[in-house]
Amino acid sequence: MFSSSSSFFVVFSGQNQKQKQVVKCERGMSMGPINIKGEIERVNGKELSYSEFVKRYMEKNQPVVLTGLMDPHYWRSSTDWVTLQGQPNFQYFSTHFGASKVQVADCDTREFTDQKREEMMVSDFIARCLQLEEASAVQCYNENSSSNGPSISVPYLKDWHFVKEYPEYVAYVTPMFFCDDWLNLYLDNFRIHIDSDTQQPDKEICCSDYRFVYMGVKGSWTPLHADVFRSYSWSGNVCGKKRWLFLDPSQCHLVFDRNMKNCVYNIFDEVSNSKFPGFSEAIWLECTQNAGEIIFVPSGWYHQVHNLEDTISINHNWFNAYNLSWVWNLLLRDYNEAKEYIEDIKDICDDFEGLCQRNLAANTGMNFYDFFTFISYFALANLVLLRYMNRRYGNGTGSSSTISQHFSMNLGCLRKIASEMKSMHALEGNHDYVVDMIEAFEDPRFSKLCMHVGRTYIMIQEQSYLSLDFECTSMCDLVDLNDMKSYTSQIYTPEDLIKFIDNGVAELGDCFIEEQPILHVA
Ligand SMILES: O=C(O)CCC(=O)C(=O)O
């Protein structure tokens, strides 16, 4: 149903196992060649166990296309949102969600490092798509009669917080591989960053989670980027087709300028060799993703995406024990950059560190305090759950022990990050900041977080026999509060957090040494 005037013509020529690709676009831009080494691995998700997914992709930080995971039984969107011809059902969107306000990118207009965006109602976005389709048909006619009509920019609906906006409408069920998602579990209960200066009710939804719907016509696209917080992401095509180009993180310096400040915007543009001297050396992986396929995008992989057909996709960003170090490393790098940027006003600034942290939050989406609160809450939640499992199942074997190992591994990862924060002297010198574990305990949002984390791991390990038991559990059942209060305390620094974790685990009788295999995080 959708069509646009900027489709791609692709010519391949093999060259020593690598392919040199020349791409031209209809609007007359000539595009430079890029080296494509190969394709992303494709695997049937139904034949993959969770632990295989962890070992082969999450731990190794490798991309994969997963088939067979978008069963229409769990993915209402794949029937409701798609016509019998396999195209986006515009009418359905206008009727049911037409009044929603969404962000729409103009794919033809660059604004800084991204495309220019505009807020509009879904019904207006749909009207634009239909207008484009009509214009495209007219243009086709005119091309035959060799006259050109006005060109219309290509709209792309992005980052629609659909789940948050329509919690009752279950459009899809997140595949199990992507459920160990600390980012969205946390955001379902807390805000990552609260800026009292700029807090507005309108911003509630836009900062509320990282679960999105994307809807774009053929020819719409997303410029080269790495994901927010250097999180993992997954993207499932409800309908349509996308072409992805990927760059391994070890090559990312090649798409930056000499100062490592500016990144190439469109890898198919003529990229200036003097501005981006490494670009022509970059070796890309590609993939064409069909309807019903899900792509796993690992941390720090730069990627550019083109909709080859009118496409609707679901997209989540997330992180957990396997990639939390990416988040911390990004924060540290961005913090150093923020600091360097205002170094010359340091002497005249009353609260230089505070300003660096405010700028970090504004640019990156969170600062050291937000991150430290986040890891402290997750440490507490994992400790509570580990104690619960120990009390309930002892040193059991089988699934209950696998779940306990997962909690232990999480604690090992959190401890490791806290040690890195400590060695970087992060949060040092601020005596006002405190994470109060007792307050957290008494906060109903925290007990919800614990229940969700517990239920998630039980589901991941397919321990359905535990889940009923767990469903009925309140915070008081989960943990003996008096018992916990005996060692909970106020956490001021990463060192306090390390001690807190060590004490909590020591009480369980485990020997909590970093080298222990159970605590190993890749
Ligand atoms: O599907 C797209 O256009 C872009 C998805 C993507 O790259 C992302 O969310 O990081």
TrEMBL record:
Presence of the UniProt keyword Lipid biosynthesis in the record: no
InterPro entries noted in UniProt: Cupin_8, JmjC_dom, JMJD6_ArgDemeth/LysHydrox
One Pfam family matching this protein: Cupin_8
Record's keyword terms, sorted: Membrane, Transmembrane, Transmembrane helix
JmjC domain segment(s): 155-335
Protein family: Belongs to the JARID1 histone demethylase family.
Stretches that traverse the bilayer: 368-386
A single cellular component GO annotation: nucleus
PROSITE patterns: JMJC
UniProt keyword RNA-binding, yes or no: no
Superkingdom, natural source: Eukaryota
Name of the protein in question: JmjC domain-containing protein
GO MF term list: 2-oxoglutarate-dependent dioxygenase activity; sequence-specific DNA binding
SMART domains linked to this entry: JmjC
A single GO BP: positive regulation of translational termination
